[in-house]
Every structure is written in structure tokens, then in C-alpha cells.
User: Fold these one by one.
Assistant:
Number 1:
Amino acid sequence: MIEIKNLKKTFRKNKVEAVRDVSLTINDGEIFALLGPNGAGKTTTMRMLSTLLSPTSGTICFDGRELDMEDVAVRRRIAFLTNEIRLDGQFTPDELAAYYGGLYEMTPEAIKENRDKLFDYFGITEFRGRRYDTFSTGMKQKTSLAICLLHDPDTIIFDEPTNGLDILTQHLIESYLLKLKEEGKCIILSTHILDLVSRMADRVGIIVDGRSVFCGTVPELPESQGVATVEEAFIKLYKENHEEKAILDKKERR
Amino acid sequence: MRRRHVPHVMASEWKKTRKTPVQLVMMLLVPLLSALFLVWAMSYVKDFTTSYQAAVLLETPAQCEETEELLSSVYPDFSFRTGTKEDVEKILYSGYTDCVIVVEEETIRIVYDSSVLSSSQALKDAADCAADLSVLLEGREMYEELQSFYPEKEVVDLSTDFEKLNTYLDQLSGVVGMIVFLMMASNAMTIAVRSITGEKERQTFDTLVLCPVPLRKILLGKSLVLLQEVFASGIVGIGAAIAGMAIWNRRDFTTVCRIAGRDIAWLPALLIIILTATCLITAIFIVIGSAFAEAKKASLFSSAGMVLVSVSAMLPTFIESDGVRYIPIANFTPTIKAICRNDVRFDTLLPALGAAVVVFGIAIILASRLWERNCE
């Protein structure tokens, strides 16, 4: 279980408050969707969860243990994938698997077993000897996903994982995420595709202007806002909280 | 299963830095050409040295006065002093006298020490001097007769082989220092940019940082492999310097070959010491430079650092004497001499080596801290 309490992140250089106050609870064996408009602080929260960024204040606890940036034990348990993360273009998928598997201290047998399973599933096997930089966007994304999952992590953090992919690849990735959920893995998705949330997520957290404004199951979201759909609930929450913030900012300026 | 992360990162980095033959040639061309150019330029610099000192030892004070006057008018480049016969070595080594011309009954002996000779031209002029001296002493009309009377002019070099090596290294250390640091300045920039900052820009570094491996191990593994280029450039640069010497400075080259032929062990020792020092300094700048988030900043930092090191290395250490003489700070002569004489004292070498490794370690830690700060 992951517990995020009063998380805050201010970037020193440009003094931007990317995350102001985020508190969420994410359970094992569920798909948790993190929703929010562009610039709400989803990616920053995800990067803090994956130890790539350190919080300015607040805590992130993995199974009751507070996370810190040098926590290699936690890193061994998580996988983080985003559209912005790339793999070394000079390597083939086989070489990438051997390299990253080695860094995760996997045995050659375990690397081979997991690699073959993932490569087969994502249709990489026939391209395993080709350089990564010669792949199409979809194939790159699938390879990145396979390499990220090679060490069999408990927690998978995906920042807009299907962004820019064709329907077939999207379907393949979504199916695999559901398979992982069935295996009891915790999956955190950051997205602004509401349809994906409705279809896949068990619970949802909404961030507006760096603040968490909702955390609950998907059916609870429209109910709590007295509307019919997830989309309407999201828009209502956004308007209320964004307008509230605008009023607060105006007062502060005065 | 417990793996060693640093060798694992190194193995991967090795694959990443594979080069095409054209890239390899281009990489090695810079040190090759700069070394050849510098040695060529140095061969001219040597001949531009025109101020010599010589002592002429004669039988009587009267001869001395007359001789000094004449020689000074004929050889304005020479600063002469005369005296009666004393201990030759004592005169030779006082105030860096290039040579001593000893006039004896049947021989005019030119005594010099190649390890303190300011120029090869000095010796040629001294030989001419000796001939003129004959004219002075016996009269111009007796010149031909005297020439046949003194058929042999003995030339005696008092310096030992190690002193010759010492002189050669004194001259070479400046050239090699320049070559090595010039190469480093250009290489460090590329290496620092490509090693980690470039990876950040290509968005490949996050995947690596997400692995359960401390950042300092990743930095160490990458730096160690990238230094191969500096090492290769260094070997090519020094090789080119020796080849250039063979073409433009046959006299020093012959001396070096003679010494090397007798005890070749000093040559790899020279390479190892110079290259290790070079690599360590470069590594420090690579790892610190790599902590910057932008390639432009990283390259600026590395270049500025390398230029500062180059300038400090070329700063002279003055040796006190009547004339001014200096050697560059980056002078490996004492260490090389100790190695050649089998007189290496590890108790003096180890602290220096230890200090270098500690500085490198601090640079690695500093780089990882800077990197973390960039995330804040």
C-alpha cells in the first residue's frame, strides 16, 4: 500500500509550486488512476513516487516505510514508464534486457525467462536483434514497457502510457495492465483520458492546481458530485477548485 | 545474486561508445597533429636561443684580458668570462656556463655538459671560438700552422645518461604537458557532454537512475570507460611527439633511443605517469560537469576547468641561478628519474596516488549531490 500525505514540491530554480498539497492512498492489487488537467502536477507527483524527485515536504510511504531518493530497496519494487523516458538507441532489445536485468541484480536465467515472456506478449521477439532507435513509436513504447517490467515489480507507475499510440498497441498495453492487476500488482496510471479511467481503474484520484481534490472509487466520483458521468464530475471538480484557487489568489494579491 | 554494478555499467558504456573507423581517425587526428606541430615548433624555438655563456681557461692573467676583449667583439652572442686554470667542473656548473674552453699545451679542449647546455648552437660556436683562440694566442700568420699543430679538438661531455634524460624530459615535459592538456580541453568537453548530460537530454538517463544502483556507481562506471578516449589520445600524442622529435630533432632523439635501448623501462613508466595524471584530472571534470542539467553548461564548465588546469600546469617554477631558468610545474622528471634508477620510494609515491584517488572520489560524490540538487 502506498500512502501519500501532504505532498508538496516547489522547484527551486523557477520557484514554481508544481504540487501544493496532495494526499492519496493506493492499495495493492488495484489500478489507481490519477486524473487532472494539463499542468495539474500529475507528472511531478509520479516522479516523486518513483524516486526521481525528492518532495519539498510531505511523505510517501511504501507499506509503512517512508520513501527516500536513495532507497534502492523501493526502486527494486517499482517500475516507472512515461512517454518522455527513452532507452539507449544503440542497443537491441536483447542487449537492453541483459543490461537492465543486470542492474536489477537478476540472474541470467530469470532475465531470459521474463524477457522471453514479455517479448512474446508484446510481439518484440522477431525484432529482438534490431537496434532500438530503428523502431517505430509504438514498438519503442512496447520495448520500453517490456524492459520496465523485466524485474517483475510490485508497483507499476505509468504516466500517460498509451499517449500517441495506435488502437492495437493501446489495447495490447491495456490488456497487459489488467493481467498485472490480476497478479496482484499495484498500478498507478496518470492520464486525462476519462474513457480509459472508466474502463480500467478501480479507484481514482483527482489533482487540480497541485492539490488533491478527490480520492475514491470510480463509481463514487459521479455520486459524490451529484452528476451522472465521470466526465461531468471531473469538470465540476475542476471548475470548483480552479475557481476557488483563482479567488484565493486574487485575495492574496490584494 | 550480488552483481558488481560498476563493471556492469562499464560494459554497457563500452558498447555505447563503439566508434566507426572514420570517427576513430578523427578523434586521434587532433592529438596527432597538435603533437607534431608542437615538436616542430619547439625545434625552431631551440635554435632561437642565442645567449650563451662560456668560460675560457688560460695560462696567465694577461692572456685572459686580451682574449676576453677579442672574443666578445667577434662573438656578441656569447657572454665570456675568463680565468686561469682551475677545477673545470666547478666553473662549468657555476651559473649555468654552457662550456669551458681549456687551453692546454697541445690541445684546446671544449668541456661541456649536455644536460645544462642551453643550445646545440652554443657548442658549435664554442668550437669556432676555440679556433679563433688559437689565432689569438699564436698570431694570425701562424693560423694554418696552428690548425695543423692542434689537429684534435677533444669534446668531453661530463653529463651521465640519466642527466641527459633529465634534460630531455625537462624540455619534453613542457611540450607533452601542452599536448596532453590541449587534448584534454577538447576531449573533456565532448566527453562530459556525452557521458551523462547528453543522456539526460536524450531522456535515457532516468531509466538508469530508476535502477536500484547508487548514482555514484553509475557515474564511476561511465567515467572510467569514457577515459579510454583520453588515454588513447594521450598515447597517440606522445607517440607523435617522439616521431616528430625523430624528424626535427635528431640529436635528442638519438640520446633518447640510446637510453631507451639500454633501459627501455622508463618509456612505459613515462606514459603511465603522464596518462594517469591526465585521466584523473579529466575524470574529475567529467563527473562534476556531468551534474549540470544542460549540455551547454556542462561543456562550458569542463572547458573552463581544463583551461585553468592547463594554464596552471604551464606556469613556471623558477630555479634560482645567475641566469633565469624555469621548468613547468607539470614536470614529471624527478619521478621518472627515480623509476629509471630503480629508486622508487613507494612511501613518497603512494600519498600522491592516494590523494588523486580521494579527489576523484570526492568529485564523484559531489557530482551525485549536484545531480540531486538539480532535481530539487
Note: Residues 230-253 of chain A form the longest helix (24 residues).
Number 2:
Amino acid sequence: MDPSEVEFLAEKEIVKIIPNFSLDKIYLIGGDLGPFNPGLPVQVPVWLALNLKQRQKCRILPPPWMDVDKLEEVREMERKEDSFTPPPSPYYMELTKLLLNHASDNIPKADEIRTLVKDIWDTRIAKLRLSADSFISQQEAHAKLDNLTLMEINTTRSFLLDSLNCMFKLRSNMQPGTSAGKALDY
Amino acid sequence: MFCEKSIELIRELQRISDGQLPAFNEDGIRQVLEEMKALYEQNQSDVNEAKGEGRSDLIPSIKLRHCCLLRNQRCVTAYLYDRLLRIRALRWEYGSVLPPNIRFHMCSEELQWFNQYKKSLANFMRSVGGEEGLDITQDMKPPKSLYIEVRCLKDHGEFEIDDGTIILLKKNSQHFLPRWKCEQLIRQGVLEHVMS
Amino acid sequence: MSAALSDEGSDQNDSQEDVMTPVELIAKLEEAWLNEKFSPDLLENKSEVVECVMEQLTHMEANLQRVRKGDMKASLHRMEIDRIRFVLSSYLRSRLQKIEKFFPHVLEKEESRADGDPSYLSPEEYAFAREYLANTETYLKAVALRHMPPNLQTVALVKAVPEPCLDSFVFLRVKERQDNVMVEPETDDQREYVVDLEEGSQHLMRYRTIAPLVSTGAVHLI
């Protein structure tokens, strides 16, 4: 999956904005939005929030988890635990990128948040590499992957799946009479 | 050695990365077909001799030639099929009109295949989900509701953006436009993305 | 203009018997999109979802025609339309790619399915696959096969073109709890075992094991 498609899914997450315009309730195919009143917080999907922000029609309120104290706690937990701790949001990486790139003036301590999220990401990706490595070397047939986010899965997807398929092919070719190896033939 | 020519066809495609289409190797194909003809004729006469005169000592070489025939057939079809996959990808990359330098590398049957593929795809897209149809060769990337700064490289006339506003795309003018609306114009060389 | 768009709202509110609301419809489309993207095999077609989404889009576009230029509401609707159209196109593209990649197998499966079974291909996809097969056969014959010795003038495409590899690993998220899912051993010295797939949990395992659960919607590929 292209990272831009993971970002596309992240843009469906809901954030709060404070609009500076008024607009009646709007009936989108995928659900109702609004009404919008100047100064009154309202929930919208991220794609809309970013668009309104660029057109200077709103201020975005950072999601509750996008907070230095909370993220420091998450980072400590993530470093302490061997397994994956629950992520701050299923799309924490993409949302951080999107909101900090396009609305950093609305996010207090944006630079610190960027660093913290990067640290959390790095710690988790290191764990992911280790578990992928052991999955392959133990020749496991099943792994439970709770708390991994789609973006994290996506960074390892093609490499891990290709390796597993390749090993499977090598193994099944060694046993005469199986047909599994012919998949990539011809 | 038998089958060397046909292996060379396969190597030729393997050397060239996936997206590229080398010139159709008509000569290579012809040489393989000639080899196949010779192998087949020799086998015909050996089979007759083996049957007629009980020359069972000929059977191993008949078998060997037959294996070579099968291998040649397999390599030629693999060569042709791999090229079709590359040609198919070109439809998605360039649209329904291929640049002349690419057409130049295709044989006439490949052009026919391409034209038929175009037609099948168009029929499919016209009949998807009701009367209107849907052009699935568009919207290749997720839309971005974001705006970008673009500069106009040539006069293009009026252009309607998503909220219905009409702007005039005049050479050297700069605009702040929704990115997904500009992508095609950027590809066509009408607009360029101004990096800040 | 508000009249043009507000009837959209009333559509959404009266939920008729067994008719999906537009919100559910879009969720179905996104689920089908991701499943199709990540499944090594072609899944059952979702023609009814595709048609309903197309209808929604056409209806919305028609309403927007009547809207004043530069209207803010219209621009939000257009952004949403673009997002939905992307998912729909990408979904149909994923399917078409698999149909092209596996065409002899896809056709064989479709043509040998029992009468009551759900069809894998939509009528449009079936027509496309037949044309693709005929086109490719004609081509191979014209360029090479007809010049080959008489006993080598045909190629069994079903044997020559790769099959979907159902043994591929996939990532999945569980929507409805499943007990005792069999995990087959990877090597001879391992034994098979069962796992429970709890609601909301995520897993990495072979597609073959969970393929039926994808088609019932009990798990989603991610």
C-alpha cells in the first residue's frame, strides 16, 4: 500500500476545529457535519480541517494525545516494555505529520511533539524489526500483532511478505510432488 | 546447443528493467522457429525410422529433441507474454495514445493486442455501475484537499476549480489551487509547482 | 441551493428496511477496497455496493450542478466526492489487475461455479476477462504458435499463467470473534495448533487459513 493511501485513511480521523465562519449543517454522503458557528468548536474529519485551515477559515485544536506530557509518558512506556504498548492514536504518525506540517501554529510545543513522536516511532519500528526477524527465523505460522498501526505494518509489509513467500517457495520446492512452487513459474 | 536462441530472448527482457519495452526481436523469434522446424523434421524422420526399422536406439535423441521443442515453445511464449504485460502497463502510464518511440518497438500484432486491450478497458469503464460509467485510469492517487502554489507555463484559458470559481490561467501567472485539481495540468506541462 | 442539498439529508434519515444508509455504504466500500487490495486472490464482486456508490455520486453531482458558483458547501461536497471516487476507482483497479494477472484461473473458477454460488466476477468484469483471454490467445497464435510444429500450436494458458498464491501471508484485524482457527505447521517438526481470534485483535497468518472469514466479513485485511 502506498503511504499516501495510509495518510488518506488517517485523514478520516475526527478532530475539533474552531471555525471563523457560519454554515448550516451539511449532509455529506459519509455523514453529517456542522453546523459551523464562529468561535464554537465543532468536530470534522482531518481532510476537511486541513482544507479549512489552509483557507484560513478555522483553527485546529490538537487531539488530546498530542500533548508533550502525555507523549513523554508514552515514550517511557514504549521504551520500558518489550511488547508494543497501545499507540497514542491508530494514526499517530500520519496525524502528527499532517497537523504539524499544515497547522503547526495551532499546536503548542510543535517541535517537542515532533521529536517525541519520532522517538516513539523509532522505538516501535526497532521492536517491529526484531519481531519480524524472530518470526522468520523461528519459521512461525502465526503472529499476534495487537497495537501495531497500519503505517507501522505498512513499512514492513512488502519486505516481510516477500521474504515469507520466497522461503515458502524454496521449502515447498524441496519436497517433490508439491505444486506450490510453480506459482511464479513461466 | 539447442534452445540457446530462446534463452537469449528471455535474457534480453530480464536485462531490461520492468517498465521498459525493448524493440521486438523479430529475428530472434524467427531463429527459434527455424530451430523448432529443424528439430521437428528430424524427429519426424527418426520416428519413422524407429517405427519402420525397429531402431529403438533412436528413441533417446527423439526425446531430447522433443524436450528442446517444448522448451523453445515455452520460452517464446514467455517472451511474448512478458512483453504484453509491459505493453499493458503502458496503457495505464501513457493513456490510450502511445508515444511514437514506443510504438516503434512494437510489432504489428502487439499493436493489435494493445488496441483490443484499450477497447476492452473502455467497454469495461463505460459499463461500470450504471449509465455514466467511471474512468478508473483517473484518480490514481488519493486526493489531497490541500492547496499548492503553482505557476502557469503557458496560456491555458479559463479553469474552474472545485468551489466553482473560474480563474484565468495566463502564462507566468501564479495561483493558489487545490493540488488534486492541478495534477493533470502539471503533468501536461501547463502548470508547475512552485516550491516555497 | 440549500433545497438542492437538504433532500440528501432526508434520504439519510429515513432508513428503509434492509437498505444500507449512505454512511454504511461508504464503510462497506472502504472495507471491500482494503480487502481486495491485500487479498492475494480475487474476492467476490460487490456490484451492488459499486452501483449504489455510483448512484450516490451521480445524485450528488447533479445536485451540485444547481448550486451557485463559489459556494462553500459545494466545495466541501466536491472534496468528499473526490475522496469517494478515488476509493471506488482504486477498488475497481485492484480487481481488474488481478483479473488480468490470473485471467485463465479467474475464468475457470467463474465458469465452473455451481448455480446458486455467488459469482466472483461482475458481468462487466466477466466480459472483460473473456475479451482479455481471446485477445491474448489470438495474439500468441498470430505471432508464434501458428508457425510452430503442428503438435505445439496450442498453449494451455491455465497451466502457463501463475495462479493466485493462497499461501501468502496477510495482515488482518478481527471484527467478529472466531475460536479454534487452525494454524498449519510451517515445517515438518512443527505441529498444527489452533488460535482464537479475539474481536479487535490483529494477526499475521496465511491467507488460505482465513479466506472464508474474509468473505463473511468476520475479519478485515489490513
Note: Chain A has one domain: 3-180.
